[in-house]
Structures are given as structure tokens and as C-alpha cells.
## 1
Amino acid sequence: MLADSEIEFLENIVERKKVLKKGEFLFHAGDEFDAIHAIRSGSLKSYTISADGTEQVTGFHLPGEIVGLNAISTTAYPSFAKALETSLVCSIPFDKLESLSRDIPGLQKQLFKVMSGEIREEQELMMLLSKKNADERFAALIMNMSARFKRRGLSEKEFQLTMTRGDIGNYLGLAVETVSRLVTRLQKQQLISIQDRYIEITDMPGLSALAGTSCHV
Amino acid sequence: MLADSEIEFLENIVERKKVLKKGEFLFHAGDEFDAIHAIRSGSLKSYTISADGTEQVTGFHLPGEIVGLNAISTTAYPSFAKALETSLVCSIPFDKLESLSRDIPGLQKQLFKVMSGEIREEQELMMLLSKKNADERFAALIMNMSARFKRRGLSEKEFQLTMTRGDIGNYLGLAVETVSRLVTRLQKQQLISIQDRYIEITDMPGLSALAGTSCHV
DNA sequence: CGAATGTTTGAGGATGCTCAAGGGATGTGG
DNA sequence: CCACATCCCTTGAGCATCCTCAAACATTCG
């Protein structure tokens, strides 16, 4: 997560801006790693293909966030990144970023912070997956998305879920059918209101309580 | 994960070396973050305390690994780090490391790599937790530990599990009883042999197959 | 318009949790 | 050095959650 000012600063060293249409790839698993990518608008999902050939969703990415940080230690991207809707992405050559961050102490520090933050968020997500039941997982995902939209100055109470129920289930370790039933149930409990993929959080404290404390980022 | 040579290099800028006895803390959640920590010998576990007061194990740490990377983006450690046995730890003041890494390009790169690697490993673990059943989770943990011991030049086939069954279950999102039953079952299947906490992998290909592909780090 | 993809609902069943109990190891204080 | 408390591990029985299978409908897109 970067502030607007930081993104704008980075844009000055950006060599490539891309518009991705829904379903297009930012990169494929195995592609040579040479850049990290800042999302300006839209949304993406990351996923890998497991040994048995099934898709494994590893994350959703919103505007202001950085994609590709998990590839720095390798020479190739370990996952796919695919646009969930029309999206605008800025690619920042990593070798350039590295050398710049030597000259600009603030940049280096910021990079460390962004990466550290990602580690922490992954750990929180891990806890979510290992300790929570289906309702709590789904609630935690919604609260997490809400917090991320809020950080970008967007509405924390209503937003578009650009991924399918299948993606959500895959990500949370739940069957599609379970996700569908959750949506129905949480709506009956007046916690949320969903019309297709547009969600409104109608009881923020209630949903937060159900999610546990995953909303304190 | 750092190479021996890298650890030794870092030792030269280390200000504090600590010996922790079993049960002692390297740091508490909420302590001011000022250093990351390289483990020279022994083992630690990281955990947080959730809203309902229960312990949530977030990771196990072996020699050669770095603890505290998830705190860089904050001013305080987000988790506890507790010694599972007598352990030797080198603490590296982070501000010093930051300034040094400006002058030594290789160090900066290495830091980026270590952090990126941690992000990737967390993602793999996440997948493990969301997609695999109990047997597969346990097998994946054992294979993961095995690979980490191997990287340090230690035996990949037999080693000490220094954590309790409870810690393992907590980490993998399983009940203690389930872990206990898994140990029994995998032994009957001739995949492993456990005497108290000393484990021997008797069928590496079999265990690897059960774990899925989590052993390709 | 037809095909593919996504969503919802129902019924049955398996995996893993909870509750319960007993035995073993560890450690502390008298 | 022993007694007792605590923590750890194991095993059993019943049960809840969530998955699988199946089917129908909606939506998107070529």
C-alpha cells in the first residue's frame, strides 16, 4: 500500500503503463521477473496452478497496491496476475528501483515498509484461514476489503466485489456453494446486502464482530 | 534464510547476542521495534494473542532464519517470539542495517530478497491452509521443516520437532487430538517414525506426494 | 441464439472438532 | 528426594460443519 504522493513519485520512473482488459494477464507464472507493478485503477487476482492442475487464488489486488513483491527473491514470477476488470497498471523496473533507492533513503525505507507490511498481512490472513470458520472467513474478507477501500478514500460501506463467488471460495478455502449460502445467510442476518456483486455493509459493528479483530490494520 | 557467510557478515554489525532459555521471550507483542534477529542455534515460535485471549501460532523459526521482518512497517512488534529450546540469537539494529544497506548494494539486494522470499513462503503456507486436509497439512509441515534443515546442511530425514503437538495443531488449524491421531496414522502408513518429538522420515517420496508440491522451495 | 460461465438451493455424507478420560513426563517446593 | 501440580500426549465416542453431488436458473459473450 502506497500513498497517492508516493505512487505519483514512482510514476516518474515508470517506463510502462498498461491498460488491462478483464481477463488479460499482467504476467504469467514463469515469466521473467523484471518489474513490480502499482495498480492505479481496477482490480486483479493472483493465483498459482497446483500440481493437480487446479487454480489456487492467492490474493486480490486493489488500487494503490503493489503486485509482484513475492518475485524479488527469484528470477521468475511465482504466480499469475489477471485483471478482474479493466485496470490501469504502472510497471516499475526493479533494477531501476533498486538503484534509485540507494540514492533516496526515504524510498528504500518505504520499500522495506511496504514489503514488511505485506508479510504481516499474509500472516493475518493465515490466521484467518487456520482458525476461523466459514462465516468468520467471509466476514473477515469483506472487512478487509472495506478497510482497503477506506485507505484509498473510497467508500468503506459499499463497493463492487469484482471477483466471482468461485474466486472468493478458492481464496478462503471454501466450496462455491458454501460461499453462496454464506451470502444468503449474512443477508438474512442483516449484516450485508448484496445485489449481484455489489455489496453494502449494513451492520459494520456486527460484521466486524463476526470477523474477529481482523479489521484493525 | 541467509547463507552462513551472510550471517557472519551481519555478525560484525551485531550489537547484541542473546542466549534464550526455553520459554524465554526474544520480544513481546507491543515491544518497540528496533532490530531484526538472526537465529544461530535453537528454535523459536511466533504467536499473537487474539481478541478472545487465545494463542495463535504464526510460525516456527530455525537456525539461519530471520525473525522480526514483519515489524518493519510498524513501530512495535506485532507478535511474540518465544524460545522453544535454548537458543542463540543475534540482534541487528534495524536503523544501522538500513544505513549500511545504502552503502552496500549487495546487502540491500539481499534484504529485499529475504523479505520477498518470506512473502512467497507465507503465500505457499496460505495455500496449504486453505486447500489441504489434515493429513496433507501435517505432511507439508514436515516436508517444509525437512527442506529448511537441509538448507542448513543438517539431516533432511531426521530431526527434532521442538514444538508441542498443541503448537503444531494451532499453527495448522487442527485440534491437538487430530495432530495426535495424524502422527499415529502416518506412522502406521510407514511414512514417518516418531519417538516423542524426534521424527524420522522413512518414506520421503511418499510423504512428499501426500504433502502435494509444497517441497519445491 | 446457443454455449459457456456463474449463481443458487437441496440432500447426503465425510472430515475433523468437542468432550471425556487416563497415563506419562516435567518441574517445583517442601 | 519425594509429593504434588502442571503440562503434554493419546485414544474413544458423538456430533457439527462444510464438502460433494445434482439440478435448475441467470448472465455473458461470441
## 2
Amino acid sequence: MNFSNKVWQLTQKIPKGKITTYNIVAKKLNSKAYRAVGQALKKNPNAPEVPCHRVVASDGSIYGYKGIKNNKEKINLLKKEGIKIKGKKIINFKEHLYKF
DNA sequence: CGCTTGACACCGT
DNA sequence: AACGGTGCCAAGC
């Protein structure tokens, strides 16, 4: 079981309409490798199974996801799940926050 | 085996 | 409040 593998497993656990942060995921893995979490998610071999769009930065902003590409469709999908996004930041992201 | 990179977080300015 | 610099950890080369 690699670090990345755990990350994906946890990410899969995120229910629809909920989100979490890299920091939290790393802590759940008993580690401070929140950056490595991002690395794992970007690899994401299980694209459909792992909702990486539900993992955001600690301040509730989309770090890199939309930044890499102008993929508004994914952001729109998040909105459809009940998450409101203003620019790169999630509105009331703490309320949707899933702490495992 | 060691240096560089990156979807972050934290602190100072 | 916004921006920039620094530290962190795992993976890749």
C-alpha cells in the first residue's frame, strides 16, 4: 500500500457534495505530506473513481485544478453537487468540509 | 544515492 | 488583504 494509494482510497470516501483539503487527507494518513497528496492526486490513475475535484487547498481555494486548465466543466460539476464557487475559492467551504 | 519538482501550508512583509 | 519566500514530503530522473 503506497502513500498515493492511501490518498486515493481516502479521496474515494468523500461523499458527494462534500469536500476536503490536502492537509486533512495527509493528517488522516498520519503524515504531513500534504504536498505529496497533491502529487498523488495529479497522477490519479483512477480518474472517475477518485473525485480529485473534491480536494481543495486549506483556505478553500482551487489550487492548480482549474489553474492548470480552464476546465470550467469540473467546477460546474462541483457547483451541481451543491458547492458554490467564487472564482477559485469555495463559498462556505467549511460547511461542506468532510473531516473523515 | 542525491537533486529537482509540485494539484500545499505557513509566516513575514 | 494580497503577495512572496520558505519548509514540508513523496516521486521521478
